[in-house]
Amino acid sequence: MEQEFELIAKTFMGLENVLAQELTQLGANNIQIGRRMVAFTGNQEMMYRANFQLRTAIRILKPIAHFKARSAEDMYDEVRKIDWSQYIEHGKTFSVDSVVYSEEFRNSRFVTYKVKDAIVDQFREATGTRPNISVSNPDIRLNIHIAEDQATLSLDSSGESLHRRGYRQESVEAPLNEVLAAGMILMSGWKADTDFIDPMCGSGTLLIEAALIARNINPGVFRKAFAFEKWPDFNQELFDTIYNDDSKEREFEHHIYGYDVDMKAVNTARLNVKAAGLSQTVTVEQQDFKDFKKPAEKSIIMTNPPYGERISTPDLLGTYKMIGERLKHEFSGNEAWILSYREECFEQIGLKPSIKIPLYNGSLECEFRKYALFDGKMKAFRAEGGVVKSEREKREMAQKHRFKKNREFKQHLDDDGEQADNHHSHFKHVKRDVRSEGARKPLRSHKSEDHADVQEQNNQKYKLLGHRYEKRDRKRTKIDQRRGRSNERNDHFQEDE
Questions:
Q1: Taking 80 as the threshold, does the pLDDT of residue 286 lie above it?
Q2: What is the 3-state secondary structure (H, E, C) of 383-409?
Q3: Domain that includes residue 151, residue range
Q4: What is the tens place of the pLDDT at every residue in 142-193?
Q5: In this predicted structure, what is the pLDDT of residue 263?
Q6: Are 365 and 348 in contact (CB under 8 A)?
Q7: 189-200: buried (b, 16+ CB within 10 Å) or exposed (e) per residue?
Q8: Residue 77, strand partner residues
Q9: Of 132, 275, 298, 105, which Cα lies nearest the Cα of 205?
Q10: What is the DSSP letter of 385?
Q11: 425, 205 in Cβ contact below 8 A?
Q12: Which end of the chain is more exposed for a tag (fewer CB within 10 A), N or C?
């Protein structure tokens, strides 16, 4: 039996319990919930699976040392005690990220420099040479976390933040973060047993994450690489096995619908859905929410309307009043979830929420509210067996004010740079240069629903975003592609900041 070791999964404020549940389902041991993180234990396979399969993690760290750092000298000495030759091979580069909550260490860059100095000095003394530092494309990425005098030094097994799935080709202004979107869906308790609707879908993040959850497709399948692939002990065969195992994927018997008033947002969402190979599962159309009619099938509605913060919206309060009217008159018998920021906006909805969950969207302390929509009066609804608030939701509500007791997190949220691009998905169109990310690996041919007609017309070949790929055996293609990428990863491990 392979020995287990300590691991830390980082996440956003408010998603810790959801992440812990994911880890439980994954089979992790010794799960402990912390602040914006969940600690657990597992072996190498668990670490690979955590990176590849978790939807609400932004980074998986492997601690290699815990120590007290009462001064810069203490920290330097402790870092030098570690045998760095087992982690950083000759000729390899490294970088250090620092997160600091300490009166003694007020400058995270100073901490970064001291750690780098200790590592470099050890190599210089032992070998006469020193490893090079690389910020943009390191072979080994380290993370040091200091809370007062308690320091944890870890290997970063993820590299680029895990919210960067790899399917996003274009974006609207301030798109919803993929990890936050997945967390919202999982938090709602949706079991993929109804249709899913986002009436203000922007670039389609909620739609795509819902589709991945509904079909149980691993979010890591679209990524180009993970940091652990450059580690000295990387097990290629083990990771290929994990990567190619789609035995738990499933069919989705319902459908996912996205709408937006802005045609540019609609086209962006369609492109991203197509890149994820989900066009048979997700439909995106141009439509104003005020024109919505009652859906034909039982549905869950989930959306992230404009807040009036980073995106100016004419008649903001009127927009929320319209949302409330549409929900009340056209969505009875269903449930709706809305993420927003301003209390006055929620008031305009005019409906009583059954649950309020605090969530951070970027630096904004928002609320994620559920509305149980039914005809008639609450008393009659309950008399017929209707459930307004489950026991789980009651427990969530018990944490309603916990953010207000921990305001200091608001100013530290961006220390790790993980929430830089996750506010709101609506209106302004922003195009990303796909070429800057390098050629993407082929999407899984058996799941690229968009290309079925193209494959038929072009003799088993298809074209995706300007790249032409030959249809081959699915598993062989994925393994070969990954093994052939070793020289194509320049510019991959970009800083999240």
A1: yes
A2: HCCCCCCCHHHHHHHCCCCCHHHCCHH
A3: 5-156
A4: 999 999 899 999 999 999 999 999 999 988 877 899 999 999 999 999 999 9
A5: 96
A6: no
A7: ebebebbbbbbb
A8: none
A9: 275
A10: T
A11: yes
A12: N
| Centroid of chain to Cα 404 | 24
**Per-residue model confidence (pLDDT) at position 444:** 38
Other beta carbons within 10 angstroms of residue 214's beta carbon come to 24
pLDDT in tens, 76-102: 999 999 999 999 998 899 999 999 988
Of 104, 129, 156, the residue that ends a domain is 156
19-23: which pairs have CB atoms within 8 A and are 24 or more residues apart?
Answer: 19/54, 19/56, 19/57, 19/183, 21/186, 22/54, 22/55, 22/56, 22/57, 22/186, 23/50, 23/54
Instruction: Please say if the pLDDT value at position 312 is more than 90.
Output: no
Same domain membership, residue 141 and residue 28:
yes
Q: Which two tokens mark 93?
A: 């580069």
Residue type, 275: A
Alpha helices in 201-235 (DSSP H): 205-214
CA-closest candidate to residue 325, choices 298, 299, 292, 362: 292
How many domains is the chain built from? 2
One-letter amino acid for residue 244 of the chain = N
The verdict on residue 442 lying in a domain is no
pLDDT band at 247 (very low <50, low <70, confident <90, very high): very high
109: left (phi over 0), alpha (psi -120 to 50) or beta: alpha
Of the three residues 102, 128, 156, the one that is the final residue of a domain is 156
**What is the H or E stretch that residue 140 is in?**
strand 140-147
Tell me if 232 sits within 8 A of 139, measured CB to CB: no
What's the pLDDT score for residue 351?
Answer: 93
In 199-257, alpha helices (H): 205-214, 236-244
Q: What is the DSSP letter of 107?
A: -
Res 454: pLDDT: 33
Same domain? 78 vs 144:
yes
435 assigned to some structural domain? no
In whole angstroms, how large is the CA radius of gyration of the chain?
Answer: 24
210 and 344 within one domain? yes
Cβ neighbours, 10 Å, residue 257 = 21
